[in-house]
Every structure is written in structure tokens, then in C-alpha cells.
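Our collaborator T.R. sent over the components below with a one-line note: 'Predict the complex.' Nothing else. No constraints on interfaces, no templates requested, no preferences about which chain binds where. So this is a plain run: every listed entity goes in together, and whatever single assembly comes back becomes the starting point for the next discussion.
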Amino acid sequence: MYTIGQVAELFHLPISTLRYYDKEGLFPCLERQSGIRKFSERELEALRVIECLKRSGLEIKDIKQFMAWCLEGPSTYPDRKAMFEARKQALEEELQQMQKTLDMLRFKCWYYETAMQDGNEDRLNAMLPDHLPPEIQTLYDNAHA
Amino acid sequence: MYTIGQVAELFHLPISTLRYYDKEGLFPCLERQSGIRKFSERELEALRVIECLKRSGLEIKDIKQFMAWCLEGPSTYPDRKAMFEARKQALEEELQQMQKTLDMLRFKCWYYETAMQDGNEDRLNAMLPDHLPPEIQTLYDNAHA
DNA sequence: GTAACACCTGAACCTGACTTTATGTCAAGG
DNA sequence: CCTTGACATAAAGTCAGGTTCAGGTGTTAC
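Returned assembly:
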């Protein structure tokens, strides 16, 4: 059993956030002793799942839905699986987009490195868009694909 | 020369967003004819850069700073490069985190697939945390690394 | 027994990036 | 001439995800 302050420290979260999660129904089984929240292993596990779902882009209300499904038992396995599948696909697409953005950023770093050496962008502008050094061309093309 | 409506269509952005960007100073050279915004090639190029910087996680006010540097000339090449370097590093770290999250999601998909087959989580709970099938164990470990 | 401290509540406030609303100007078409 | 449609403005509203605050309670330490 942990107090809210101990859990906050364990998870490096502000106490206010834990209270907010509770208010939003993310700890449906949370118990209290004379008003004071008592966090058990069940809530810690919930918190681990919450962190994962949050990172994967879910909103609080969707996480609440997931918690509700968990309470409901095995009949909701398909819902829970569908939710994770959907998130997985969304994240995979986001990852692809990020790779493109990253190539763009790498290109821009090279661009300004070169501009600094030249003192201007004249030579660079003459090279664009298809007379760049080979590996830079790849970055540029990836970023615009 | 384009009207705000044409640009909105070209970039699949609401008109209100373009006006908001203008209000925030993202088009420092934008001209007007009797009050009406006239978007030229310069603003389209700015918009392409804005989209990239936004995807890379920059806030509007930082993008505004970048636009100001571009106006200022070659003396700000180092600032612009530093900005892209910082974004590049941040995005690379974020990408790593996302890979971990993705492994967690893949694990959860397998978990609920298995739970559905079993009709309960008893066997799964007995396998956790270190008696999982080999490739699933890898996902699990990566996600918690 | 009283001070210090962690806890409680509910409500108001905050930030970023828009979006909506209310109101107004202006040129072209029926 | 008047309506329609695209443009303009300022100001307020929205949304997620918290944070802060005022005012009160409970337990522990001396």
C-alpha cells in the first residue's frame, strides 16, 4: 500500500496528475482509508499501462474505456485487442512520417552547414532540387516522397 | 499570386489557420491589395517550411523566430543550423521511445490474441514476466528496457 | 497540545493551436 | 439595386491535459 505522494515519486509524476487520473476514473478499484487514497499493486500496474497507452497517443477518456473493459472481464478481450491493433497501426504510420521529417531535418542541417561555409546560399540554390551530393540527394528525396 | 482561399485549398488547411499564422507573424513579407492578402511563391515556400517544422515538434513562436532569422540574412546561419540540430536530436530520441512503445503494443496484441484463445488470462499470467515464447519475450523486454 | 506536514476537495486557471462568432467591406452577377 | 460570396477584423470559445489555489482534515513529533 502506497500513499499518493509515494506513487508520485515512484513514477516521477506530480501528485496533481494522479488525483486527476483518479477523478477521470482511471483507478476504478482505488480504495481509501478515511478519505486518503491507498494505492495497491493493482493501481501501480494500471499506472504502467496508462503510461504506455498515453505514449501510444491515446486520450484519457479512451484509457478510461480500457479500464472499464478490464473490469468487465473476458468478454471484452476482443475490444481490448482491437484497441491495441488500432493504436499499433496508427503508431507505425506516425513512425514512417517521423522518418521523413527526420530526413528533412538532416538535410536542413547539411544545408546550413554548407551555407555557413559558403557565406551565402547561392551555390546551394543552384544545386536544388536535383544536383545535390548523392547521400544528401537521398535525404532530400526521402523527405519529399 | 494567390488568395487565401486558393492557398487553403492547395495546402488542405482551413482559411482560419492561414489567418492565424499571419497574425502570429509567420508571413513577414505578406503583401495586401486593399486589405486583401496576396500570397506569392515566397509565402508558399514559407508554408512548406512551416509544415516541416511543425511536424518536427516546433511551436509557432519558434517558427516565427526562424522566419525572423531568415529575414536577417547570412549572419543567422549558425542560429538556424543550431535550431535544426536540436530538433534532429530531439526527434531521434522520440523515435527510440516510439519503437519501445510499438514493441509494447505488439506484445499487447499478442497477449489479447492469446487471452481470446484461452478464454482467460491464467496461462498468460503464469508465463509472465520471463517464460514467454522467444520472439514475444524480445518484444516484452524491449518495451521495458 | 500544538505545530508541522501530508493529505483532502472543488473550482478556477493555464497553454497551444486553432476555430467560431459577430460584424463589416467590396466586387460581380441577375 | 440588391444579393451573394469571398474576403476582412477582433474577440471569444474549444480542447486536452494538466496546475494552482483556498480552505479544511488527519496523523505524527516534540
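Summary for T.R.: The two ends of chain B are 53 Å apart (CA to CA).
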